[in-house]
Amino acid sequence: MTDTGASSPDSDSTLTDGRVDDITTASDMVSAVRKNIQTVIVGNTQVIDHILIAILARGHVLLEDVPGVGKTMLARAVARSFEGEFKRIQFTPDLLPADVTGVNVYNQKAEDFEFRHGPVFGNVVLGDEINRAPPKTQGALLEAMEEQQVTVDGTTRTLPNPFTVIATQNAIEDEHVYGLPLAELDRFMKKLRLGYPDESEEIEMLGRTVGIHPIESLEPVATLSDLRAARTIAAEISVVEPVRSYATQIARFTRENAQIGLSPRGTLQLLRAAQGRAVVEGRDYVIPDDVKTEALVVIPHRIQSGSEQTSDELVRSALSTIDPE
Fold first, then answer.
1. pLDDT digits over 224-246, tens only?
2. Residue 271: which of 313, 223, 237 has the closest Cα?
3. Where do the domains of the chain lie, and which CATH numbers do they carry?
4. Rounded to an integer, what distance in angstroms lies between the CA atom of residue 133 and that of residue 123?
5. Are 228 and 235 spatial neighbours (Cβ–Cβ below 8 Å)?
6. In the predicted model, is pLDDT for residue 47 greater than 60?
7. 311 and 298 Cβ atoms separated by less than 8 Å
């Protein structure tokens, strides 16, 4: 990633009023969406922020946890907070790749084949229980998530812009599930866990949902144009050389101490996530703390420690060992 030329702590230039306004607008949009989601989801503020930052940074999110903690509800609340097409794919063992991407069907009246779009053609796509589908079907998302397009019968079709996948998976069942290969995990910018609510949060949640669930009346608070503009702002956030070097050193630490270390794509995703966090915090430059915070959810699922340390512990070791310049 190269320096975008925007001002930074090491720059002699100052922010223009227009630039300040752009970043403030993007940050305000995230705040509005967060507040909207929190009318449905109690607690998990950090997880919500991580998801919104991933969307801002053009990334995809994997939610993994035990059943019943609100993974799907959170994904639905995020999707409904943005204007645009929300599509849901319920992954099952008998789901076929064509059920995800779409299929060519012969139209007898027109005497020609016509393409019927699959549910992947949406702005926010919920892949519910993604690990219940076999690898061949899971693989139907690889091209979509990496290149924002799908190829069916030799014809490539572009997906909507913006396009984000929020997938969920059950973390405890061993039967009738298929583990996600590392190549697919690497497509997800972040892997997040919700955990159980504390006592007060669970009481509040019950009070909100025993009647009509608030998800049913949730309305969008951000347009697709808002999101596209915010993504452009995030992509232009300055990442100066010392910060790029810091991210690279973290990546090299994992490669030297893990069986499979962080890929260059993972390093890029780390810096993009850090750019998104900078926008949310109202800055036009990335600081090392942005990288540190995002590393904890961007890196572990992409590496295999191959030692007594877990992937999470290895990442924490890297962050405690490497000092940013």
1. 999 999 999 999 999 999 999 99
2. 237
3. 17-321 (3.40.50.300)
4. 22
5. no
6. yes
7. no
Sheet holding 190-192, edge to edge: 86-90, 124-128, 164-170, 61-65, 190-192
Angle at 226 between CA 221 and CA 228, to 5 degrees: 135
Largest CA distance in the chain: 68
Structure tokens at 157: 């079709």
Sequence letter at residue 143: E
The structure's pTM equals: 0.86
Q: Taking phi first (over 0 means left), then psi (-120 to 50 degrees means alpha), and beta for anything else, what does residue 134 get?
A: beta
> For the range 264-270, what are the long-range contacts, defined as Cβ-Cβ under 8 Å and sequence gap of 24 or more?
265/186, 266/186, 266/298, 266/299, 266/302, 266/303, 268/1, 269/57, 269/59, 269/189, 269/298, 270/294, 270/295, 270/298, 270/299
Per-residue pLDDT, 245: 96
**pLDDT per position as a tens digit, 64-95:** 887 778 888 888 888 889 888 889 999 999 99
Share of the chain above pLDDT 70, in %: 93
